[in-house]
Design goal:
The chain has 292 residues and is an alpha/beta fold. The chain has twelve helices and eight strands. Bound molecules: ligand LZUJQKHR. The site of the ligand O=C(O)C1=N[C@H](C(=O)O)C[C@H](O)C1 has 12 residues, from loops. Homotetramer; dimer of dimers.
């Protein structure tokens, strides 16, 4: 199980590969994981935004977790598994969290409830109920996707819940991580890929980064160099990653660009995404080709 003591380093949110008819492609998932798990990453995230959680069902999540366990066994490697279980319905999130626990999740990733615009107090209660399911919780603040921005006080209250082990911060800046770490906080993982290095310098303990599916060893190097005090070399390495990170997020929505690259690399069979997402445009493909 993950805990606040070991929530650090590079966590990679994985894509959910689909066949061209949009059904789950478990063969691709298996071969993709075999490529990814060559690297010494600190955790895998299944059913995050990158895993297209708005359009997957629980059966599909279960199959992916089972495949991940099989691949890890084959590779004789145990990497913590984080499962995305957060929805905007507290009861459903609790049930998913309990099921994730039964599947052997090391932690769950729970996004701030989106769309129904609860108050800070309601969101704290949402996390309290989910945390009572007995599985370590990583709270996930991403106002750009959820439509609400929590106050720092509400985030502190959530982080004080005993089963909440840390925060994934995609708040859009480094003010939050800076404010939390200034007063001593449970670990904060950066979830805003372009801000990874800046977040480390403000006290983040690592990153949960879709872009780390590519150039994985370089992301690990950025992190390792940073924590061993080689700050400027770490920044230099990170700067080299920036152009591709921009292309993964700024033109068309994650994970469509990433899936296209993974399919070009032959790691997954198809770049298929489920509606309302669409495969990326030809101009973006041309642009990305210059960087891979
Ligand atoms: O799947 C995730 O978890 C992530 N999602 C973010 C997003 O798509 O907004 C990006 C981050 O790299 C990880």
């Amino acid at each position: 199980m993950l805990s606040e003591q070991n929530l650090k380093g590079i966590y990679v949110p994985v894509v959910t590969p689909f066949q061209t008819n949009h059904t789950l492609d478990l063969a691709s998932f298996e071969s993709y994981l075999k490529h990814l798990l060559v690297h010494d990453i600190d955790g895998l995230v299944i059913n995050g935004t990158t895993g297209e959680c708005p359009t997957t069902n629980w059966e599909e999540v279960t199959s992916q977790v089972e495949i991940a366990k099989i691949v890890m066994k084959q590779l004789n490697k145990r990497v913590p598994i984080v499962i995305g279980t957060g929805t905007n319905d507290t009861l459903s999130s609790v049930k998913r969290t309990e099921r994730a626990g039964e599947l052997g999740a090391d932690a769950v990733l729970v996004v701030t409830p989106y769309y129904n615009k609860p108050t800070d107090k309601g969101v704290v209660e949402h996390f309290r109920k989910i945390s009572e399911a007995g599985v370590p919780v990583i709270a996930y603040e991403i106002p750009g996707r959820t439509g609400i921005r929590l106050s720092v006080d509400a985030i502190r209250e959530i982080l004080e819940l005993p089963q909440v082990i840390g925060l994934k911060d995609s708040s859009g800046g480094v003010e939050l991580v800076s404010e939390l770490s200034r007063h001593g906080s449970k670990p904060v993982l950066c979830g805003e890929d372009l801000l990874f290095h800046a977040s480390l310098s403000q006290g983040a303990s690592g990153g949960m980064l879709a872009s780390a599916n590519l150039n994985t060893s370089k992301f690990i190097d950025v992190y390792n160099r940073y924590i061993s005090g080689e700050v400027s070399e770490s920044k230099k390495q990170f700067d080299e990653l920036v152009p591709l990170i921009r292309l993964l997020f700024q033109e068309e929505p994650n994970p469509a660009p990433l899936k296209w690259i993974l399919s070009e690399l032959g790691w997954i069979e198809s770049d298929s995404v489920r509606l309302p997402l669409l495969p990326i445009s030809d101009p973006l493909k041309e642009e990305i080709r210059k960087h891979i």
